[in-house]
Write a structure and sequence with these properties.
This protein has two domains: 130 residues, Aspartate Aminotransferase, domain 1; 232 residues, 3-Layer(aba) Sandwich (Aspartate Aminotransferase, domain 2). Helix content is 44%, strand content 17%. The chain is built from 15 helices and 14 strands. The radius of gyration is 21 Å and the shape is globular. It starts with a helix and ends with a helix.
């Protein structure tokens, strides 16, 4: 087996698909040190710049003194701390839903929800560009999996019409992590209501970015429904770690009783939950931070002018530039690195073949000068690399 794995790794490297980890030697920030190099980073999902925010650090420190470090047990034994309870109430209230439930990661949240709510006789309807966690969750549930072309609601409706499953669940990214486009929530919800389906929204990249004060996709579209099961990760815009699911109180109670990834894992550190409450408070009280991010997004789209590479249409903090081949995307990323700018190259299987890209992530911690510098280097790169 070792020899086979070695050969596969060689093949992956030859195809320009081998990934490597960068060693971070500073706090997560827009100006950081990685592999010993000082860099201006457009690589993080820290969309609001909260990962190193003093209010969150202070909340974490005080809570650690009070509650210790580890959770010590699963939530259903002795691991459910008051800090966890407070965070669930705060997060659910922030997105306007009746109840919430913390999970250790977004991956575990999606796996737990889908596998708990559906079984072999049920049906899942999934956008083809959904995150890997939703795809794996569908497989784990063993329900019938129907995948429709990206954002193709006509195809989705045909699938819903044809389904006779007793339980139907549409699962979809609210913001698609590699394209930056937003799911058409009102139309999706209308289809779910028409064909008696429920809707699981993975708002990992919308929470903190979309809607009033960053309350997410529900606020962005001003939509509410008991058919919505809402999931958001907390290591991106919230700046901490973990994930939460929010929705109808019956659904949340059912997940507490039935979601294996909740039941059979140790509760997260209580101090992290206290930091999450602090993050929600910052989002609610520092609206200028959210507005600054929106201004940077608009500015970047307006002032970047590429002739050969394609900036994909996105109104979110994710601004992808499609380059094409794997080596071309790697070359562009490496060129920027020589200029002290970190932007990751994204390649298959994360994105479709021949659509390798740079995935630019904007943050409220960036300044206008930071964004102007990125634009300048991208314009220069196109001239140098495509000469």
């Amino acid at each position: 087996m070792i020899e086979q794995l070695k050969a596969e790794l060689v093949e992956r490297a030859q195809a320009g698909l081998k990934r490597k980890r960068r060693l971070l030697q500073s706090p997560q920030a827009v100006h950081l040190v990685a592999d010993g190099q000082r860099l201006l980073s457009f690589a993080s999902n820290d969309y609001l710049g909260l990962a190193n925010h003093p209010d969150l650090i202070s909340a974490l420190q005080h809570a650690a003194k009070e509650a210790g470090v580890g959770g010590g047990a699963s939530h259903l034994i002795t691991g459910h701390h008051q800090f966890h309870h407070d965070a669930e109430l705060s997060l659910a209230g922030f997105v306007g839903l009746p109840a919430g439930l913390l999970f250790s990661t977004g991956y575990m949240a999606n796996m737990g929800v889908v596998a708990a709510l559906l079984g072999r006789n049920d049906a899942i309807f999934a956008d083809k560009l959904n995150h890997a966690s939703l795809n794996d969750a569908a497989i784990l549930a063993r329900a019938e999996l129907n995948r429709y072309a990206h954002q193709d609601l006509v195809q989705l409706e045909k699938m819903l019409i044809a389904s006779t499953a007793p339980r139907k669940l549409v699962i979809v990214d609210a913001v698609f992590s590699m394209d930056g486009d937003i799911a058409p929530l009102p139309q999706l919800l209308a289809l779910c209501e028409k064909y008696d389906a429920y809707l699981l929204l993975d708002d990992a990249h919308g929470f903190g970015v979309l809607g009033e004060q960053g309350r997410g996709i529900l606020s962005h579209f001003n939509v509410a429904s008991p058919r919505i099961i809402y999931m958001a990760t907390l290591g991106k815009a919230a700046g901490v770690a973990g994930a939460f699911v929010a929705g109808d109180t019956i659904i949340i109670e059912y997940l507490i009783q039935s979601a294996n990834t909740y039941i059979y894992t140790t509760a997260g550190p209580p101090a992290l939950a206290a930091a999450l409450v602090a993050a929600v408070n910052v989002m609610q009280n520092d609206e200028a931070r959210h507005q600054h991010l929106q201004d940077l997004i608009a500015y970047f789209k307006q002032h970047l002018s590429l002739k050969r590479w394609q900036l994909m249409p996105s109104d979110t903090a994710i601004q992808p530039i499609v380059v094409g081949g794997n080596e071309a995307a790697l070359s562009l990323s490496e060129y920027l690195l020589t200029q002290g700018v970190l932007v990751p190259a994204i390649r298959p299987p994360t994105v479709p073949k021949n659509t390798a890209r740079l995935r630019i992530s904007l943050s409220a911690a960036h300044t206008l000068d930071d964004v102007n510098l990125l634009i300048q280097h991208l314009h220069e790169a196109e001239k140098v690399l495509l000469a």
